[in-house]
Amino acid sequence: MGDGLSVFLAACRSLPTPYTPVWLMRQAGRYLPEYREVRSRHDFLTMCRTPELAAEVTVQPLRRFPLDAAIIFSDILLPLQAMGMELSFSEEEGPRLSPLRERRDVERLRPVEEADFDFLAQAIRLVCRELGDTPLIGFAGAPFTLASYAVEGGASRLYLRAKRLMWEDPGLWEELMDRLVQAVEVALAVQVRAGARAVQIFDSWAGVLSPRDYRERVLPYSRRVIEGAKRLGVPVIHFVHNGGGFLELVAETGPDVVGLDWRVGLREARKRLNGLAVQGNLDPAVLLSTPRTIEEAVRAILEEAEGRPGHVFNLGHGVLKDTPPENVAFLVEAVHRLSGR
Amino acid sequence: MGDGLSVFLAACRSLPTPYTPVWLMRQAGRYLPEYREVRSRHDFLTMCRTPELAAEVTVQPLRRFPLDAAIIFSDILLPLQAMGMELSFSEEEGPRLSPLRERRDVERLRPVEEADFDFLAQAIRLVCRELGDTPLIGFAGAPFTLASYAVEGGASRLYLRAKRLMWEDPGLWEELMDRLVQAVEVALAVQVRAGARAVQIFDSWAGVLSPRDYRERVLPYSRRVIEGAKRLGVPVIHFVHNGGGFLELVAETGPDVVGLDWRVGLREARKRLNGLAVQGNLDPAVLLSTPRTIEEAVRAILEEAEGRPGHVFNLGHGVLKDTPPENVAFLVEAVHRLSGR
């Protein structure tokens, strides 16, 4: 660390740090009473699209916990909305989209412009003003995850429609993925220009794919997104949920940091990732257990990271909604204490 | 191959075979109209517990397709029922059990006896009589998967209760796992004595664990089950669904064959498994696509297996209920044709 580079950004660049930085996926969320309070007055999409509200909930966890980074409150599906898809969220079923079924549905998607994400740029500027030196992370969904949501019309168990499109009409799949790359690139550029100092790409669903399908039909598009984000001058974290079976391919997408879920060991993973920096990877369920369980698990993860540079502590998935905030406080304190802060 | 050893059993022993043997997890199931016909007249548990019915549906797929092995129709939860737990199945929610909540619930579980599985032994004898040389596979759930079902009272999304018991009361966890090992050992012994010529251990839920939890709290019990089964003189296949993040640990349980889901590549997996025989690993969703997609995927998997001995072709998970039977016929034919039969 040095030259005013934050501990988090130094770790993303695999530089030595005085302690292990920590932030948590979904750290702004329903486990916090102050988040639920805002949410009780506004629906989820309104919160995403209103700069003051998005900024407020982004900063909430930073007021409670000495986290080493913030992540902008937003949703990976907003670029699909900007492309012209109908988007809504229901409490029970999660996101619903008007699904893409045919070529003309894909051709009707419009290219996004930076202006489509003005609300996001404004939210980021508000957050940066309040946060001072703490870096803010911007993010986007990976093209495959967005394609799955778009084709299925929401979450799915088996992603059969998305897979069949990919297998049976490779030309249309390419057309769709190309358009998604464009949208994601714009969304990321807006966030970096507004002040985000790192970005994370979430591939929430690529874990339903075989390595062959991932390599042939997904990896090239993720790589384009990641190369584009790197040209913006910020470190790129790539989180492929449940991608432990093909980490070697995730490394080939070219990120600075690979986000790992809790189903892989850090030591083994770093070997398979050829030494790339890693982020992770506490089982989020541990935060519903006792401080003793949390401390043991943190200690084991730090040991697996072998005190080497290039480790950002995180959960292996988002904070669960029943997580007691005091356990999050204990976790952040334990990561810092056990790693030498 | 030689000495009358079947192609399937030879592959399990990593011996050379004239072609790649194939069977499918859940090959006896709802995708077959003749299965649905039986199921329309009997509930699921009655089918499991009535030797003639279990034998009938076990043999159904073998009448249609030249599969290289059969697997007895049964359910991994029957040993829990034999231990004294209430078990029922509902169409919507799947299995329901009276959940274990406290030490006295665990202590009330009774040791099982071979006689508890008489219905299973009878079904196996009926099947063997009909099948002739085609080997029959017996099976059981792995201790962790059974413990999860028992503690959660059914399937679960996060397995929080099971994890918390494992983390917070290791003594009670050990007590429960010991009892499950005993029950599984008896269930497997009954099946082998009745005529099963290989066994598969299903760890359907271990993929929700971190490698550390798996290694410390699960692996030793799975290893005991597998060692016991090997002493019965049959090859043991160990399928850990979604275990691609810790294949090295799955290898340490000591099976002859590791069953792989479709999220890992066979070539990479075999390296990580130190050359153990492998079974798998077609994405079951491929069977809902076209013959062309099926053939491409089969070809890719056979290439990854590199024509070496020690490959049993299978899906990476059970046959999906909407699978067209003609696609299963095409798959079996393609595996045989492309591997040299």
Specify the biggest β-sheet of chain A: 7 strands, parallel
Strand order of the largest sheet of chain A: 1-4-5-6-7-8-9
Total DSSP E strands of chain A: 9
- Percent strand of chain A: 5-15%
CATH topology group of chain A: TIM Barrel
Radius of gyration of chain A from CA coordinates: 19 Å
Q: Distance between termini of chain A?
A: 13 Å
- SSE pattern of chain A, N- to C-terminal: HHHHEHEEHHEHHHEHEHEHEHEH
- Using a beta-carbon cutoff below 8 angstroms, give the protein chain pair with the largest interface and the number of residues from each chain: A-B, 37 and 37 residues
Give an account of the 3D structure.
- The structure is a homodimer of 341-residue chains.
- Chain A is α/β, with parallel strands linked by helices.
- The first copy, chain A, has a single domain, classed as TIM Barrel, CATH 3.20.20.210.
- Helices cover 49% and strands 12% of the residues of chain A.
- Chain A has 15 helices and nine strands.
- Chain A has helices at residues 7-12, 33-41, 44-49, 51-64, 78-82, 103-107, 118-131, 143-152, 160-168, 170-194, 211-231, 247-252, 266-272, 291-305, 325-338; strands at residues 70-71, 87-90, 94-97, 136-141, 198-203, 236-240, 257-259, 277-282, 311-315.
- A seven-stranded parallel sheet of chain A has the order 1-4-5-6-7-8-9.
- In chain A, helix 4 (51-64) packs parallel to helix 7, helix 9 crosses helix 10 and helix 14 (291-305) runs parallel beside helix 15.
- Chain A is globular, with a radius of gyration of 19 Å.
- The interface between A and B is large, with 37 and 37 residues.
